[in-house]
Amino acid sequence: MPRKLEKSRDGVIILKDDTPEKMEVESNEVDASETYDKTPVYIYYNWCKKCGICVSFCPTGTLAMKSDGTPYVKNPEKCIHCETCDRLCPDFAITGAKRGGDKNEC
Amino acid sequence: MASISQKTIHQYLRHNKKFPHVWCSGCSNGIVLGSIIRAVAELEIPKDDIMMVSGIGCSSRISVYADFNSLHTLHGRPIAFATGIKMYKPRMKVIVVTGDGDATAIGGNHFIHAARRNIDLTVIVINNHIYGMTGGQFSPTTPTNDFASTCPHGNIDPVFDVCQLAIGAGATHVARSTAFHSLEVQNMTKEAIEHPGCSVVEVISACPVIYGRMNKKGNASKMMENMRDNSISLKAVEKLPEEKTKGKIVRGVLKKDTNIPEYTDSYAKLVERLKRGNDE
Predict the structure, then answer these.
(1) Torsion-angle region of residue B218: left (phi > 0), alpha (psi -120 to 50) or beta?
(2) What is the set of domains in chain B, with CATH numbers?
(3) Partner-chain contact B15 A23, CB within 8 Å
(4) Is B180 part of the contact surface with chain A (CB cutoff 8 Å)?
């Protein structure tokens, strides 16, 4: 079923069927669901081109690569939220999740 | 701390264009686009006040994906179009995104004359050392002795230094960085947008599929590591002896001058003076 096509400039982004599910972004607040606490980073596999930059520049080894080059979160507890992957991803396909349950939030 | 994440960036992308974007796997253009968007988001400029102009080439596809006012123009001519826009609407922030071939070869004249006039444009030159989109011809910035599809036995041309060219032509804010140092690119872009006058930011980027493959530079991560290891900041250059800095990419703001009058200001003053002259 096609999703709602919404507002123009500052509101909700136009969603199409080929847009990944988790790419849904609203201007006011992104809903922090339970999964945000469980995984430190989100990877949008629909946009990922398997270049390997996020895996090779992850300073703590949170991310690892499958045999076909797809990145995945191997050690979620090691993530220090440096957002290097977020910043160096050329495809906008990885993002640091919200530090909702993080007690050491600065 | 990086406060602007991909979630903010997605609000600045045109989701009705086809994503994932056209660039090859590991291409640095996406990183530069992210840095530009972060700079704009940090400055909190409304989307409608930004005009993004680009020519033809891989890097010039950036204007298609970013949700600003945009103009995708002729090969080499983005600066000419941008000059017109800036003259008509001086309040607009005009960002020109161009590649190395676009800016220095085909649009070389427009580039140096925009710098000479000191018109308030932000020119971001993404330098990947090759014409990527058309199949890997050598460009004015291809290093000597490197290979390209039109020089299979090695390039014999000397190289253009984009920053020195801009400084020589009279641009008032000139900076250089690499795509690996994406925070630096973000800060430089921010500074360049705020600077009144012609500002040039050269971003050395990686083209792993065409330039990297022809010159055996390895994959995308390897090229990014090369950028990290073979570049040196301007502050470090002053301290280190000359032999250690030889052959390295110098990062930093190479020139900043706010005393030279800006072109649209001078034009407005001229108009004002002539109006007053008619009244008297």
Answers:
(1) left
(2) 14-279 (3.40.50.970)
(3) yes
(4) yes
